[in-house]
Design a protein that fits this description.
Elements: E1 2-11, E2 14-20, E3 24-29, H1 36-48, E4 67-76, E5 79-88, E6 94-97, E7 100-101, E8 114-117, H2 123-126, H3 129-143, H4 147-170, H5 173-220, E9 226-231, H6 243-264, E10 275-280, E11 283-284, H7 285-288, H8 291-312, E12 319-323, H9 331-342, E13 346-351, E14 364-369, E15 372-375
Parallel strand pairs: 3-13, 3-14, 8-12, 12-13
Antiparallel strand pairs: 1-2, 1-4, 4-5, 5-6, 6-7, 9-10, 10-11, 14-15
Helix pairs in contact: 3-5, 4-5, 4-6, 5-6, 5-8
């Protein structure tokens, strides 16, 4: 699959723009601040319904506008599909598939797979655990779009449960029993959804690890070992990967920590507190790895996700997007990434100057500037 056409209205810096991409390699060239990343952000947004740069949708709408639209025509095996999302500042976002309205935007997930490698990806290995949890969940949803509903439901239940815990801090004795009864109901939902997500994350790490180990050796010349370990917040993690056992383990942990949770007004057990521990040579990458090793580890995670999507999802290769990363890498890592990217069905590269794009990735070239995108080769 590849993106054949991208059209934007009032998205970031663009009032109106349309770009036709070929299969293979395309390079977007332009000075910093001219809108290269805005283009690939839009492609990634329609694939994931999220930005790799910001946490909310508001910054995606051009200043002075009240809504933005992203439209992509993707081609696979000679068949085109059209995906569109309207991002609105005043009401819920809306989406269409082949111009037919969808019940909710998340119904678009799974039609287009995209893997982005960007300078922000250093946070995957050097940032907060939330960055690594987001990586796991984003990859899971790309593999199985139905998990977006599980993730959304868990977020909703967690929000409600935390609000109830804060209420319990100040509840009068007479109303305390009512609060506890309501909390029991939220605990049951939270335990069920937590068990589902945690087991999916564990299975994901099992699937990613062989790809990650192979790619780490490729990009770094370091035989490692490169390891990933899912660290669950459950104090007593079941030995078997049985959903019912995990659900009961979460219920037990919630009951054990209830007093502490009421004192602090926040949920202390669950997938929202789990960690993906990444190590090289038995040392955590975070806090121990050099700058080059950290880049290798971050790149490894993205390439492993690409391989997993390539093999486990229908529709051909994901679209591979490399956002202004070649200037950040040394010559050896740059060359090995370029050789890998050249073999993808579609690779879109951004760079400030054409010389930053490795020779093996010479293909279609677009000049980006002054709100325009012009193909020059």
């Amino acid at each position: 699959m590849f993106v054949r056409e991208l059209s934007l209205r009032d998205f970031r810096s663009y009032e109106q723009v349309s770009v036709a991409f070929p299969a293979g390699v395309s390079a977007l060239i332009g000075s910093n601040g001219q809108g290269k990343t805005n283009l690939i952000e839009a492609i990634a947004y329609i694939a994931t319904l999220g930005s790799h740069r910001v946490a909310t949708d508001a910054p995606l709408i051009r200043r002075g506008a009240t809504s933005a639209a992203v439209r992509v025509v993707a081609s696979h095996a000679g068949r085109d599909i059209e995906l569109q999302v309207e991002i609105d500042a005043q009401r819920p976002n809306r989406a269409t598939f082949n111009r037919s309205p969808l019940k909710r935007p998340r119904d678009l997930l799974g039609y287009l797979n995209v893997v982005v490698f960007a300078p922000e990806d250093l946070a995957l290995v050097k940032g907060d655990p939330s960055d690594r949890r987001h990586f796991m969940d984003q990859t899971l949803i790309a593999l199985a779009p139905r998990l977006a509903a599980t993730r959304s439901d868990l977020d909703r239940v967690l929000k409600q449960r935390n609000a109830l815990l804060k209420t319990a801090q100040h509840a009068a004795r007479r109303s305390a029993s009512d609060v506890m009864h309501t909390l029991d109901a939220w605990d049951a939902q939270f335990a069920r959804l937590s068990a589902q997500l945690a087991l999916q994350r564990l299975a994901l790490i099992d699937s990613l690890l062989p790809h990650a180990q192979a790619h780490y050796a490729m990009v770094s010349d370091d035989r490692g070992p490169f390891t990933m370990q899912y660290e669950c917040s459950l104090p007593d993690q079941p030995a078997a990967r049985d959903e019912a056992e995990w659900e009961q383990a979460y219920l037990a942990a919630l009951a054990q920590r209830r007093g502490d949770e009421i004192d602090r007004g926040i949920t202390l057990v669950g997938p929202q507190r789990d960690e993906l521990a990444i190590s090289v040579r038995d040392l955590p990458v975070k806090g121990y790895a050099s700058h080059g090793e950290s880049w290798s580890a971050a790149l490894t995670l993205r390439l492993a996700a690409f391989e997993l999507l390539r093999h486990d999802r229908p529709g051909g290769d994901p679209v591979l997007i490399l956002d202004d990363v070649f200037a950040e890498l040394d010559a050896r890592r740059r060359q090995r990434l370029a050789e890998f990217a050249h073999r993808a069905e579609q690779t879109i590269v951004t760079a400030a100057v054409a010389d930053d794009v490795p020779e093996v990735l010479q293909g279609a070239q677009f000049q980006v500037g002054n709100g325009e995108v012009l193909r020059v080769r």
